[in-house]
Specification:
This is SpoVT-AbrB domain-containing protein. InterPro entries: SpoVT-AbrB_dom, SpoVT-AbrB_sf. By secondary structure, the chain is α+β, with helices and mostly antiparallel strands. It has 3 helices and 2 strands; from the N terminus they run αββαα.
Length: 101
């Protein structure tokens, strides 16, 4: 299946230039809201190249996006939505709830 511009016209093509430079047609950049500096994931399967817009995550923040952490975030969101929360008005109140003084 060939790529088509947003207006449904004929398939698009772009020449591969020296050093592997490829210009993504403006209609495609507009459709996907791509801007200079955006990152694209590159995948090769069955003789096809797939480019997928992606946001890169700093290494020191990668832990937050692991499946395990995201599952914990989802459980926390469910607890908040169901009202299963305890709000503390002070540090001392919080420490007391932990059995500390």
């Amino acid at each position: 299946m060939a790529g088509r511009p947003a207006d449904g016209g004929r398939p698009l093509s772009a020449p591969l230039r020296e050093r592997g430079v490829l210009t993504i047609p403006q209609s495609v950049r507009d459709q996907l809201q791509l801007r200079a500096g955006d990152n694209l994931l590159i995948d090769v399967q069955d003789g096809r190249i797939t480019l997928t817009p992606a946001a890169l995550v700093a290494r020191d923040q990668a832990w937050f996006w692991t499946p395990e952490w995201q599952a914990k975030e989802a459980r926390a969101d469910e607890d908040l939505a169901a009202g299963r929360v305890v709000r503390h008005t002070s540090d001392a109140d919080f420490l007391t709830s932990l059995g500390e003084e």
